[in-house]
Known about the structure:
This protein is an alpha/beta fold. The chain is built from seven helices and twelve strands. The chain has a seven-stranded mixed beta sheet, sandwiched between helices. Strand 2, helix 5 (132-143) and strand 3 (147-151) form a beta-alpha-beta unit.
Amino acid sequence: MQKPMNYPDTYSYEEQLEYLKNASYTISHARPTTANRMGLITNGCFEAARKALLEGRKADEAIMEYTVKANNMRYDKVYKMAQYLVSTFPEHGAVMTQCFGETIVGQMCRVAKEQGKGDIRIFCPETRPYFQGARLTSTVCKDMGMDVTLITDNMPAFVMQNEKIDVFTSAADAICMDGYVVNKVGTFQIAIAAKYQGIPYFVTGAPDHVHPTVDTVKIEMRDPDFTLQAMGVKTAADGVKGYYPAFDITPPHLVSGVVTDTGIYTPYDLPR
Length: 272
């Protein structure tokens, strides 16, 4: 492989490529459930860096430029998803979320205001043991000026019934082509409660062709000690065992629709 002109001598071209290739794999596979989706991002960064090095430019600057461009494209797509999602919200409605859906939470709030639904009430389960719902989802909703209420993870069924929840929504770590939804643990039980009470569940995201069926999904098991404490404060007695699956799987018969940037699809029609 030819070394580009004006290339610094500290590390060879081949050494930098090898380092970046390994970094791409390590980062993308930090969470096995989302390895494919993350690989699209890190591999794109790798290709941008490789091209920059061949042209005698700095790899880190090229990665930054690519990341900003890719992130802007993602926001455009998620904004379209939010438009479809919010169209399912009734005026003056109540919505329950699950976990931190990255850009979709902020875009959902933005579109709600644009569509004259800025007065919807949002209820966020805390999503233990890492509390993403408490620390991230509810904070984003508050910062966007929404009416948001935090609830514990064992309250969704009661809240649905007594606060008249109209829609349950979540993002997804993976949406299998057979309609199964892999998301933050707890999503499955909320979907069950929603189905029982006649509340639609809409999941946002792109169906993942790498997962033609749910059998291809590997559920990540995390440090069980996290379930024995709350934000560093021990809550269980010595000798008590913990159990921490990071995600659970919701079957398609509990999913009202998969919200993408091209429309809302039944979970049984994702190949189209």
